[in-house]
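Batch manifest, entry 17 of 40.
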Amino acid sequence: MEAKFCMTCGAAMETRDVDGTVRRACTVCSFVHWGNYSIGVGALVTKDEKILLVRRAQEPGKGRWTNPGGYIEQHELIQETIVREVMEECGVKAEVTRLVAVRDLPRSIHNVYIAFELDYICGEPTPDGVEVDAAGFFSLQEMETMPVADFTRWLIDVALHSTQAGLVEDEDPIIQMDGYGLYRVPKVSAQ
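Output type: structure tokens
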């Protein structure tokens, strides 16, 4: 969908070259529509060597088993989003431990998907009945006969077979920046 009116002042938009790329720009103010983007997050929650999966009740992927996840809200840190999404979709409380993967999918709406590993805290998987119609913890052996989405299979492999620590939240950055969600390679401890 092409932006027709400015989101800042409401004036008409036009197509023009902005820094070497054709973009929609306001005819009155300095607003530029940089593109259409979405950011999704996914959870890899493990309990007793089993992975939490949900069965999609809606398209895309209706009937397929995936890891819980969703889209970030405008004023929500991504680590808060994934904890919320796991609770909303299947009633499981979990805590982020590390960032394990990023998927970049450029298309009409450019999607970036950030996958986290989470520690299970409590709760029995119970589907929300809207986005998902089934939920549970499953072993790799059980998943072999289930219609698990290809991307979810890839994420599970990444989480279970990573040899590095992944990115972890920087809870004590050298410079405090309120409102930022900062992730880094773990600090090397002094020997």
